[in-house]
Amino acid sequence: MWFPVAGSEQVKAGEVYAAQVGDQELVLFRNGGGDICVLEDRCPHRRVPLSLGKVIDGQLRCAYHGWTFDGKDGHCVAIPNLDDAEHIPASLCATAFRTAEFAGFIYVAVAGEGAGDEEFPCYPPAGFHYEKIDSGCAVVSVSSQEYLAAMLDGPHILLAIRGINISDFYIGDVTREGGCLSVDRTAIWTLKAKPHEKLWGLSTLALRTQVCPDQSVVRLQLLDAGEEILLAAVIAVVPGKRGTSQLHWRCYYSPNYLRSAPRGVRLRAARGAPFDVFAAVNGQRLADLMAGPSVELTVSGSTEADSAPAERIVLSDVSEVETSPTTEENL
Ligand code: FES
Predict the structure, then answer these.
(1) Mean pLDDT of the chain
(2) Does residue 45 line the site of ligand 1, with CB under 6 A?
């Protein structure tokens, strides 16, 4: 299984990026060819975080004693002050993880049978023509399981679409496709002069929220009356430490996104990104949220315990190369 851990734009050439999946600390960087590399964020020499180091010529140099590691297999390729007669043991390496980059997201493979053979979960809807993309990231003080459940029960407390009010009640039934749950909500263009509460009956929009707990991904679509997609977004919800979640999202806008919007909304839409995922979750609003579609997360073979990503996620190493975290300390 591929697990999204960062957005592509967060890992810049020549820079390191620290990430976590559950308790597993990672360091991400790009090698000389621009390919993404993911190592355990721990130097095999004295366990200093490698994310404190520097990328030199596409390889990662530890900040403490300057050991340098290749990103693809984790091998140590340079140790300062080594005599000509001394050689770096082949077993000396940082733990490297299988990784891939696709459609603006960076993934690591979760260990297990067929690890990494599945499709990548974050992408725009098939056949959707979009003209613009926004992206962002945040860390919220809500566990990934609670965040996914809240997305089903009340996405309006977690995100905003400029000029759109999203109702707190859903329409129709919750549908299940594979391991994903999907639910539609009424949405409406809103102007201050016309309070949206009085206009729900005239609503011509719907927000479709699909939550895939196995992949820890949320997909959203803003639909018009003809079910044409005006906007689509995907949010990777990565379990972090101490009950937090890291969010990495991308939003894709149709050229027709504002076609049905009131003139005032169209004028305001030019100011800033229309789509935003809140970097802080209001605890009171979260506590007040009534359980709705999320109860389906706990029925018929998809219990919260086994469908949501476990807090302890084991990632797939790039090879069978044996690591030696404590050896050669005298080098
Ligand atoms: S701790 Fe990294 S090189 Fe010594």
Answers:
(1) 86
(2) yes
Superfamily of domain 2-109: Rieske [2Fe-2S] iron-sulphur domain (2.102.10.10)
By most ligand atoms within 8 Å of CB, the mutation choice from 27, 39, 62, 327 for ligand 1 is: 62
- Other beta carbons within 10 angstroms of residue 120's beta carbon come to 16
Does the beta carbon of 80 lie inside 6 Å of ligand 1? no
Q: Tell me how far the alpha carbon of residue 60 lies from the centroid of ligand 1, in angstroms.
A: 11
Q: Which residue's CA lies nearest to atom 4 of ligand 1?
A: 65
Range(s) for CATH 2.102.10.10 in the chain? 2-109
Name the band, by pLDDT with cuts 50, 70 and 90, for residue 267: confident
* pLDDT confidence tier of residue 8, bands split at 50, 70 and 90: very high
Architecture of domain 132-307: 2-Layer Sandwich (3.30)
Tell me if 21 sits within 8 A of 1, measured CB to CB.
no
Question: Ligand 1 centre and the CA of 317: distance in Å?
Answer: 21
Q: Where in the chain is the domain with CATH 3.30.530?
A: 132-307
Pairing type for strands 24-30 and 36-40 reads antiparallel
pLDDT reading at 298 higher than 90: no
Contact between 98 and 109 (Cβ < 8 Å): yes
